[in-house]
Design a protein that fits this description.
Strand content: 15-25%
Strand order of the largest sheet: 3-2-1-4-5-6-7
Number of helices: 15
CATH topology of the largest domain: Rossmann fold
Largest sheet: 7 strands, parallel
Distance between the termini: 15 Å
Number of domains: 2
Helix content: 40-55%
CATH architecture of the largest domain: 3-Layer(aba) Sandwich
Number of strands: 13
């Protein structure tokens, strides 16, 4: 099939999933076209047959803010016409599903029928979409998509509570390429470059937004390192990084915390990890936790959103109430202090990721594309 993918080209979960999905589809022989304002950060053109179409924004004195939705819709029309795409898979309701609807209508005027698959990832629903300014547009975009998916049962339920949805929403979990993490563990995991042999390695990966509660990560680790010799790897960047660095300095643990910034080598970094911390205010799914589990890391997380669907309490890690730093630290210490317990949790985490493997999820998306195309 000829498939267009529209996403944010960033390190965030939705961008990562969309990019990995596109590369996997290309590997299966599909023709895949990415349509966005920058090349997605994990997009690999050298080993995949992919196409990238940049959405250009012109500077006009008339506009205080450039009309991205208009430029995106126009680019979608152009790419669909030129390359005879059959399906547009848009990640995020706003602005992507809204722009796709406008493209669909413009193409209908030209006698072309493009199908739109919309995947809801979380922020488009829980934060942006629920705002009164955007609520009607989000509701309209979801109800006028040909197929709608959500990345967790929790997100589907949240969407149905917030909006008047008449369309069906199918739950299709986020996925990971487990082979990539297997390879990193087998060939590239040199722990000694990060920590001493007797030290445990704790990791956090995020975009350092307030919702990720990075200061809680530091507070949890502060308690951990009192009981267990350990290092903390902070992977990512964002508005809360400075506050996290200041808290590390205040607590006097600079020598135990390493800030690595954004990285395209997450699989290599996670192969070092014993316990992964994700004390988020909310997670529609928890892709970062799943990636850590694929690298055989136990997960300490909150019990919010879709996290209980990914992290199984008492098996792959532990779940705690939002903000309960002491409980999260206690649970992490329980895992880290005992070699045998740690190995059991790491093995359980690795095994659980098979449910979310690329091999299981990719055919689901392929079937959805075919079904809406056939229904035409």
């Amino acid at each position: 099939m000829k498939i267009g993918i529209v996403c944010y080209p960033t390190f965030g979960g939705s961008g990562v999933v969309a990019t990995e999905l596109g590369m996997a589809l290309a590997d299966k022989g599909h023709e895949v076209h990415f349509i966005t304002y920058n090349q997605p950060v994990r997009l690999d053109f050298f080993t995949h047959n992919l196409h990238f179409h940049e959405v250009l924004l012109e500077e006009y004195p008339l506009f205080q803010y450039q009309p991205y939705e208009l430029a995106l819709s126009s680019k979608m029309v152009e790419v669909v016409e030129k390359h005879q795409l059959e399906v547009l898979h848009v990640h995020y309701a706003i602005p992507h599903a809204y722009a796709a609807y406008m493209a669909k209508r413009m193409l209908q005027e030209k006698g072309l029928d493009i199908k739109v698959v919309t995947t809801l990832h979380g922020t488009d629903i829980t934060l942006v979409g629920s705002h009164p300014t955007y609520k009607s547009a989000v509701e309209f975009s979801i109800n006028n998509s040909d197929v709608v998916t959500a990345v967790s049962k929790s997100l589907k339920e949240h969407t149905l509570r917030l909006f008047n949805i008449t369309n069906d929403i199918k739950v299709v979990y986020n996925f990971i390429d487990t082979e990539k993490y297997d390879k990193a563990q087998e060939t590239e995991c040199n722990r000694i470059s990060i920590a001493k042999p007797e030290e445990r390695i704790v990791t956090h990966v995020s975009n350092f937004r307030p919702v990720k509660r990075t200061e809680d990560v530091i507070k949890i680790f502060y308690e951990i390192q009192k009981e267990v010799p350990s290092k903390l790897l902070m992977v990512g960047d964002g508005p809360e990084r400075m506050n996290a660095e200041m808290l590390v300095a205040k607590l006097g643990i600079e020598e135990r915390v390493i800030f690595l910034g954004n990285s395209n080598e997450v699989a290599k970094i996670l192969c070092y990890t014993d316990v992964f911390l994700l004390p988020s205010e909310t997670e529609s799914f928890g892709l970062a936790a799943l990636e850590a589990m694929a690298a055989s890391s136990a997960v300490i997380s909150t019990n919010t959103g879709g996290l209980p669907e990914v992290n199984i309490h008492g098996k792959t890690g532990y779940l705690s109430n939002l903000g309960d730093v002491n409980d999260m630290a206690k649970n992490a210490i329980t895992i880290l202090k005992d070699d045998a317990i740690l190995e059991v949790f790491k093995a359980n985490a690795k095994a659980h990721t098979k449910l979310f493997s690329l091999e299981n999820i990719l055919p689901v998306y392929e079937e959805l594309y075919k079904s809406c195309s056939v229904s035409a």
